[in-house]
Amino acid sequence: MSRIVLATLNAKYIHASFGLRYLYANLNELQSVTEIKEFTIKTRSIDIVEQILESKPEIVGFGVYIWNTVETMAVISQLKTVAPEITIILGGPEVSYETEQQSITDYADYVVTGAAEKSFYQLCKDIFSLQYPDKKILQSKALTLTEVTLPYQFYSDEDLKHRLLYVEASRGCPFKCEFCLSSLDKTSYPFELTRFLNEMELLYQRGARNFKFVDRTFNLKVSTTIQILDFFLERMDDELYLHFEVIPDHLPEKLKEALKKFPEGSLQFEVGIQTFNSEVQSHISRKQNNQKSKDNLIWLRDNTTAHIHADLIFGLPGETFASFADSFNQLYACRPHEIQSGILKRLRGSPIIRHTETFDLRFNPLPPFNLLSNSTVDFATMQRVNRFARYWDMIGNSGRFKNTLPFILIENAQSRDGKADPFYDFMAITDWIFNKTGQTHQINLKKLYELVAQAVEQLFSERYAKVAQQLELDYDSSRLKGSFKRLTLSNSKFDESGSQSRRLARQSRHVS
Ligand code: B12
Ligand code: SF4
User: Fold this and answer.
1) Are 346 and 363 in contact (CB under 8 A)?
2) Which of 18, 69, 91, 298 could share a disulfide with 112, CB 3.0–4.6 Å?
3) Which atom of ligand 2 is least distant from the CA of 286?
4) What is d(CA 420, CA 509) in angstroms, rounded to the nearest whole number?
5) Listed residue (300, 293, 253) closest to 273, CA to CA
6) CATH superfamily assigned to domain 4-142
């Protein structure tokens, strides 16, 4: 039995809920009557309801995020039907803005917006002492980080072994990129460093090796960044793996020196580029020195072993298909290990909606609220880029085509203006594969090797021989069963569909 259950539906099992552990850590004397129950968005709502009711709680608090709002609504509507006497409290970024307009809040007794370490505790105390607040939507009181109890001891040994451990050395972001919720923060506040590092030490001693920093800009204050890096460098072993989100145009010499010392397989950087188009950057209030960003990305690739995951966003106000292609090509030339082309999403509360009329932004009314079209990109083009992103994940980001990819996307006579054009070439491959299969999911790896070879043969026949050679290397390292020789790499008949595909390749270069 627990008087309070803190519940959330994580995106996947591997993501432990950091937010709920914070709330739990700050419940003081109520901690002993509280239990965290985590599920994933794949768990059936009825099973979640059953498991929550097993604890016979008086209060259930749900963490609501963009990835779980639909599923959470199913859970709480059933929970309220079976056990209306339970007080349901919602919190989390998804219900922190435009709260009243969301039907999920109809089933809740209270919604606490913002960082709720103190406010959730206060509300539970008030409910237990029958001092019910007269408002349903309660704005969390402002917090100073020194008054927040850190939650790291509440990662279980099971979490340490099997899940990503989220940690944060600072909260908030000083920048104002309008598509992002963190742009609403006034600035970034650090946790007291010694206190934070003591907690990291305890986690490390317990066996934690996989640390994912959720700091919005880990390299903002470089002296702190270096102290944290040094802390982990002193404890470096084969298993230690650190993930940071960094801004690309801020890599002072001291930081570079520190980064060079990290061994292979120990560092991952998530680098938000979003766009290299300076006009679009100004529309979304994003300040980014493009040249510095590119120089730094290349420096990281040449001088460190850090794994670089770089993000672009398609659909930003004023971005066209051609200008996005240009950003992609500039980024590809910096050789990050992964490029994620995300579609713009409308996050509740984010200031981007001020452009709705001017750029005719039309968002999906359902989660994840992705852009469907705008004044410069029609729906069909949005879909093509969606598919591009998906196939790029499977082919570019997966590492399964590591040897082959440079031979598919080479500089050659067919490229626009004689320049290398990885975006348009890969777009042609995307269109070709989708035309042939009608699928973006459930394509097994063997089939994918075949499709890529067939696409290259039809679209860029002069590259085919080298691509087929390299594909064999990739096939061998994939350890798939069966001989490479048995794959159907070639479209034996160059028929109607062949000339149609070549036409598609040409078209993809000219669509803007
Ligand atoms: C980890 C993470 C993920 C993980 C998922 C984690 C999980 N548990 O399943 C992954 C990597 C899968 C992910 C994916 C995405 N994410 Co994400 N993610 C984060 C990240 C980096 C950390 C979350 C965190 O732990 N924060 C620290 C804790 C302390 O804060 P918190 O979770 O907000 O919790 C506090 C409050 O919200 C509140 N609270 C939380 N729960 C509850 C419950 C109750 C009862 C109460 C009262 C209060 C309360 O109190 C907590 C303590 O202060 C945040 C950015 C950030 N730094 O916060 C983005 C963030 C949550 N993600 C965001 C987005 C947009 C996405 C994506 C859509 C991005 C994309 N790919 O386009 C996808 C969605 C995937 C999908 N399937 O649809 C947005 C949130 C939008 C939203 N409205 O939910 C954020 C805020 C990033 C941003 N700045 O824009 N994400
Ligand atoms: S995109 Fe990054 S830098 Fe910009 S506001 Fe969001 S967290 Fe800050």
Assistant:
1) yes
2) 91
3) 4
4) 12
5) 293
6) Cobalamin-binding domain (3.40.50.280)
